[in-house]
Structure formats: C-alpha cells, structure tokens
Write a structure and sequence with these properties.
Elements: E1 5-7, E2 10-12, E3 19-20, H1 23-34, E4 39-40, E5 47-48, H2 51-62, E6 67-68, E7 75-76, H3 79-90, E8 99-100, E9 107-108, H4 111-122, E10 127-128, E11 135-136, H5 139-150, E12 155-156, E13 163-164, H6 167-178, E14 184-185, E15 192-193, H7 196-207, E16 212-213, E17 220-221, H8 224-235, E18 240-241, E19 248-249, H9 252-262, E20 271-272, E21 279-280, H10 283-294, E22 299-300, E23 307-308, H11 311-322
Antiparallel strand pairs: 1-2, 2-3, 4-5, 6-7, 8-9, 10-11, 12-13, 14-15, 16-17, 18-19, 20-21, 22-23
Protein name: Putative zinc finger protein
GO cellular component, one term: nucleus
GO molecular function: zinc ion binding
Amino acid sequence: MGDHERISNFYQCVLCNKLLKSSTSLQYHLRAHLGERPFPCSFCGKSFINQGDQFNHIRRHIKEKPYCCSMCSSVFSCSGSLNVHLREVHGPTKRPRKTECPICKKLFLSKGALNVHLRVHTGEKPFSCSVCGSAFSQKAGLERHSLLHSGKRSFKCLQCTKTFYRSDSLKKHVLGVHAKERRHSCDFCGKTFLTDFTCKTHMLIHLNELPWKCEICGRRFRQQGTWQSHMDMHKNVKKHKCAHCTKSFTTSSGLREHYLRMHATPNERPYTCLFCEKKLVNLKYLDEHIRNHTNEHPYFCHICFKECKISKTLIYHMKTHNN
C-alpha cells in the first residue's frame, strides 16, 4: 500500500498507527495530519477535509435542514445532529428504522426526508418564486434563487475578487478559471497544485520520505518548518510573543488562536451566540461556544468512547491511549 500498510481488512496510517476501514477514510485522515482542507465554504471561507462536512456546514448558512426526526417535529442540517438528538431526547432504544424509497430503494432516516426525496421522481416543485414564477422542489432552492432578484452577491471566490449570486456559478468559475492555474501535477496520483513546492511536499506521502527526525521522541517529519516547530515544543521555546499581553507561544498558529479568542476587536467578532449574545470571531469558535449551552459532544474516542466537545480535547485524550 505504498507508505501505508494494509492490515487484514484495515488500512494503517504510518504517522500515528491508527487503523482505518477504507482507503478513502485513510485519505481523509491523512489530510488531518497534513493540514489539507481542500473544500472551502463560499460564505465564510472556513475549509473542510471532505465535501460531506463542507455541505453540512453550508446548510447552516442557507438554513437548509433536510434531516427530520420521525418522532417529533425537529429538523437538522446534518445527520450527526439528528443522531445526537435521537440519542439524547428519544433514547437509543427508540431510534427509528430507515425508510426505503419505493422507486430507487434509497434509505432515509425519516419519512420527512423520504418525502423530500420523492419529489425527484415525481417532479413536484411546491416552492415557487413570487417574482418570476420559477419553481423548486426544496425551500432552500427557492432561497438561493431569490438572491438573483435581490441583487446580493453572497458567493465570493476566495482566490480572486469576483462575487456571484449562486453557488453553482461560483463553482463553474473556480473550475473554469482557477483549476487551470494548478499546473503542477503529482506523478503518482495526478493531483494538481498551484506551486511546485506544495506538489513536491505532497509527493513525499507516496514516497514515504520523512527526512526530518526528532532526536527526543523519534517522530519524523516531511518539512523542516514542521520539524522545527515540533522541536520548539519539546524545548518549550516560546518565541511568538503576544503584542497585547505577556503571553508567548511555541507556534505562530497558537499565537493567532490566542489573539482571536482574547484580543479580537468588536469588528472582528461578527458572529453572535443566540443563547447569551457573546460575540465570536468565526463560525468554528461559535460552534464550540454553543456546545457549552447545548452540552453537545460531537467528537468521541473510538477506543473508550469518551465524548468531547471540541476536536483538540479529543486529540489530547487520544495521546493517553498512545502512551
């Protein structure tokens, strides 16, 4: 398996020895190590490891909630939130069976979701535009269409200054204009990159080359910069100093996170908590903060099933198993 060993029916990551069930899961897992998030949100710029997480996030912006609880009237933007609701509100023993589409046999968690899906087969479009009469099968489609009449260009390209009325127009722009700029291609998998450096760094994954070794713990790295940051953590070298207080940090990312959480100005905090009206700098921090009110724990350990509110807590917890 190249730089990753296949053990029985599992794929093992050589960086942390975690076992994954499929090559796709291994690919997503590797992106977490490398910091690759190739799927950005066109609304706020937040990026994601896979397209499924990107779609779930975008639904929050357009207020689309296709996952319906079959035991009450609650609706959710992603299946994970529905599962948490089913477990905490209705109990694990009362979880409903999946409902099958009689036409294509696709399974759905609720009758409400099935009814929305059936419109694909029946051609039903109950949501119509009051301005031009265009009809849509889902309310979210009508809301996106209404942006054309409002004159508001909500979809911004993160690689240039262009803005668009619709997400599909933005997608066509990115694929037609910026995708052609990615001229550096990986010799192994064909993936393309904007620069020769990022392409060669990616190719090290296939070659299993980790030239930079930590003499303290033995961990190896593909890039000198990553290795140096790791060594600074061992030596507790905190050369990144905060200009607003006396704190200092081993990495620039740690300093940046500290600034956003502690010193960001009101203009840098556009997101407001609906529970306590606290203002946050981005959707990630808002999501983490809201979990203090809802007590939601979306991250769990696959070894002992401990639940965590934020991913960083889970990462620290997993190290206790590695030790």
